[in-house]
């Protein structure tokens, strides 16, 4: 029992029973209890280890263990801190994979549907050709068969008469046979002069011309699965639009897409979106040009000075440095600053560590005329106020009835509202673009409902820009980023989509008097006319500044003659076409005067055929008669518009307009 009373440091052999069990605070060399720790060797030391570690820094073992535990705990916390990020990334990548899977299923359905339609068309053409063959053969066969019948009859008559005459001549000549022989003589005389169709009255040509080489080539190249390897985290932007921006002047930004390793992508068709917005929301439209080589150009014009942000998203994710901060100045201010410092830069990158791309932007050319492009030093009297300060004849003294909305994501709040529609049942429908939904209100502004789920699968909305109501009650929505038009019931339940594989960037939609769906494809500069079933009836238009061409067309309306009215944004004009695509009327030019436009957007037609146009860059609403002559403007000075977009006439005769820059819609009295 006394042995157990000795100090653990005693050299008595009886103390061996007090040595720490192996593996717990023991010296690895001597097996004795360690009370020090050599920092240089990172090992525990007992009393016998001292001479080997005299020159090494040492601390108490408990302190060393505590420091080690502290470092381990710190590293554990740091690594555990990554778990939410990894979880979010995992969820996001799973969502992308799910979207990819959904898109694959959708494309598979489109391929099946397209080829089934082609099979049907081929079968129809086959039936038509076989029918045409039978009809043509029948007509020719009838002629030839009639000729054959005539020749057989003539041959029979001649043979019979000749036989009878030969028999008479073989008999004895007598008075009794004279009368018979006279009849034979007359008959022979008739047959000698008988006109028979001895020359063919038809030919045997019946050929098939089947030019299948071109068709086979077309079928061989029919359809393309389009994708890129571009990722937002590696893609970059550059250009003057990030360096110096002047009010009313077009600014250009070049986007270079790159893959996960930073390699430049060489093909186009990436899903890219660009928005210039104030701190309280999106307000400025622009045009993205795909150069089909992995680079893109975004051209925009800002109508007023101030601080803005430019968001560039690739597949809904910000590219490097996005959003960019922009300071927009007037031309005179920019020139004054340039005199002080030739290298003035007014844009700063919100991501401090973003590296500018070294990719070339050569060959990037702007397409179409930008809104607001004016001569140096020109005055913009009406752009900021929404109503011209100069007096015009016969102004319509209409007042604002009410406005609904503010920036946000809740009911009655908007983020970049675009298209507007009004139903005969007293509803106002708003395409809330950046909230990926459609909101429905009464004519009095009471919120009724909203529908829409963000996504790229059928039934989901990615960027709704246009909305219309079909006479059946169905709601038709142009989805710019999904490149199709979705059809929903009046309750907001998805029914079908149309235009997939044909549309490149649908902006506005309307319905003609035959119930056909009019789609304005902003990106391809083409107007499409579909049946509600999705069958294409007609299409017309191409990119350019000709009478039958467009430069970023926006919205459409249909008049009582079933003529289609299109706002041609970058050509600063309004054009009227027949359903066959023939130009009926064109009016408007770039400017601020009466009847001039700075990028027209929304359009509607009243019961008298007058055309109401939202003038985006001039922030006003103008009224024209059916021949395109300026009548007046709607007075909006009480609460000025800022970048109006879609426009419609309500069932009770008022004008409703999407005031995009102010994140609301407004309803005005309208004197028809």
Automatic annotation (TrEMBL):
SMART domains: BBC (SM00502), BBOX (SM00336), IG_FLMN (SM00557)
Protein name as it appears in the record: Tripartite motif-containing protein 2
EC category: transferase
Subunit structure: Forms homooligomers. Interacts with TRIM3; this interaction reduces TRIM2 activity. Interacts with myosin V; myosin V may not be a substrate for ubiquitination. Interacts with NEFL. Interacts with phosphorylated BCL2L11. Interacts with SIRPA.
Stretches assigned to coiled coil: 90-117
UniProt keyword Metal-binding present: yes
Filamin repeats, residue ranges: 227-328
Region ranges (Disordered): 335-400
Ranges for the NHL repeats: 401-444, 448-491, 492-533, 537-580, 584-627, 628-671
Domain B box-type: from-to ranges: 22-61
Gene: TRIM2B
Biased composition (Basic residues): 366-379
Family named by the database record: Belongs to the TRIM/RBCC family.
Low complexity bias (residue ranges): 339-361
E.C. number(s) listed in UniProt: 2.3.2.27
Matches recorded under Gene3D superfamilies: Classic Zinc Finger, Immunoglobulins, TolB, C-terminal domain
Statement: the UniProt record of this protein carries the keyword Coiled coil: yes
Keywords, alphabetical: Coiled coil, Metal-binding, Phosphoprotein, Repeat, Transferase, Ubl conjugation, Ubl conjugation pathway, Zinc, Zinc-finger
A Pfam family per the record: zf-B_box
Biological process per Gene Ontology, one example term: protein polyubiquitination
Reactions this protein catalyses: S-ubiquitinyl-[E2 ubiquitin-conjugating enzyme]-L-cysteine + [acceptor protein]-L-lysine = [E2 ubiquitin-conjugating enzyme]-L-cysteine + N(6)-ubiquitinyl-[acceptor protein]-L-lysine
Pathway assignment: Protein modification; protein ubiquitination
Single GO term (MF): ubiquitin protein ligase activity
């Amino acid at each position: 029992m006394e042995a157990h009373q000795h100090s653990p440091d005693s050299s008595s052999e009886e103390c061996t029973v007090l040595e720490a069990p192996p593996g717990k605070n023991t010296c690895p060399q001597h097996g004795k209890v360690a009370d020090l720790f050599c920092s240089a060797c990172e090992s525990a030391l007992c009393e016998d280890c001292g001479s080997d570690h005299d020159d090494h820094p040492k601390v108490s073992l408990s302190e060393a263990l505590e420091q080690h535990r502290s470092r381990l705990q710190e590293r554990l916390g740091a690594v555990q801190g990554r778990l939410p990020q990894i979880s979010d990334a995992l969820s996001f990548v799973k969502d992308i994979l799910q979207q990819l899977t959904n898109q694959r299923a959708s494309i598979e359905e489109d391929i099946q549907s397209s080829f089934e339609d082609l099979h049907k068309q081929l079968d129809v053409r086959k039936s038509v050709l076989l029918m045409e063959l039978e009809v043509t053969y029948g007509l020719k066969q009838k002629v030839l068969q009639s000729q054959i019948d005539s020749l057989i009859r003539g041959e029979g008559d001649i043979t019979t008469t000749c036989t009878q005459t030969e028999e008479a001549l073989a008999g004895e000549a007598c008075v009794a046979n004279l009368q018979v022989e006279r009849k034979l003589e007359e008959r022979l005389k008739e047959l000698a002069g008988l006109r028979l169709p001895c020359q063919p009255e038809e030919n045997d040509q019946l050929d098939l011309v089947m030019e299948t080489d071109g068709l086979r080539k077309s079928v061989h190249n029919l359809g393309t699965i389009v994708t890129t390897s571009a990722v937002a985290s590696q893609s970059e932007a550059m250009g003057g639009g990030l360096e110096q921006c002047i009010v009313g002047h077009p600014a250009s930004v070049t986007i270079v897409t790159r893959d996960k390793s930073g390699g430049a992508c060489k093909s186009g068709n990436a899903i890219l979106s660009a928005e210039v917005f104030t701190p309280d929301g999106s307000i400025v439209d622009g045009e993205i040009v795909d150069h089909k080589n992995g680079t893109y150009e975004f051209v925009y014009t800002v109508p007023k000075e101030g601080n803005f942000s430019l968001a560039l998203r690739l597949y809904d994710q910000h590219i490097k440095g996005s959003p960019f901060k922009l300071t927009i100045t007037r031309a005179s201010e920019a020139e004054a600053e340039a005199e002080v410092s030739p290298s003035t830069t007014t844009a700063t990158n919100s991501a401090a560590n973003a590296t500018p791309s070294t990719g070339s932007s050569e060959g990037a050319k702007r397409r179409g005329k930008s809104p607001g492009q004016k001569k140096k030093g020109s005055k913009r009297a009406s752009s900021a106020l929404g109503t011209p300060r100069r007096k015009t004849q016969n102004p319509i003294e209409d007042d604002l009835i009410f406005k609904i909305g503010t920036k946000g994501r809740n009911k009655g709040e908007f983020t970049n509202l675009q298209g507007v529609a009004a139903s005969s049942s007293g509803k106002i429908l708003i395409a809330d673009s950046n909230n990926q939904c459609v909101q429905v209100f009464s004519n009095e502004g009471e919120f009724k409902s909203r529908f829409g789920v963000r996504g790229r699968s059928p039934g989901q909305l990615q960027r709704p820009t246009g909305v219309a109501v079909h006479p059946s009650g169905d709601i038709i929505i142009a989805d710019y980023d999904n490149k199709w038009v979705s059809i929903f019931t009046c309750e907001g339940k998805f029914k079908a989509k149309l235009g997939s594989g044909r549309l490149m960037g649908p902006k506005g939609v309307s319905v003609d008097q035959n119930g056909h769906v009019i789609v304005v494809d902003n990106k391809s500069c083409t107007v499409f006319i579909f049946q509600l079933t999705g069958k294409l009836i007609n299409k017309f238009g191409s990119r350019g500044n000709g009478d039958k061409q467009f430069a970023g067309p926006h919205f459409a309306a249909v008049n009582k003659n079933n003529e289609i009215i299109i706002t041609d944004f970058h050509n600063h004009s309004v054009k009227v076409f027949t359903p066959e695509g023939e130009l009926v009327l064109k009016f408007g030019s770039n400017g601020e005067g009466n009847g001039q436009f700075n990028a027209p957007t929304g359009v509607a037609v009243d019961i008298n055929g007058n055309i109401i146009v939202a003038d985006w860059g001039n922030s006003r609403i103008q009224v024209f008669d059916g021949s395109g002559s300026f009548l007046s403007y709607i007075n909006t000075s009480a609460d000025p518009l800022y970048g109006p977009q879609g426009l419609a006439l309500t069932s009770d005769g008022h004008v409703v307009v999407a005031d995009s820059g102010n994140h609301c819609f407004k309803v005005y009295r309208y004197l028809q």
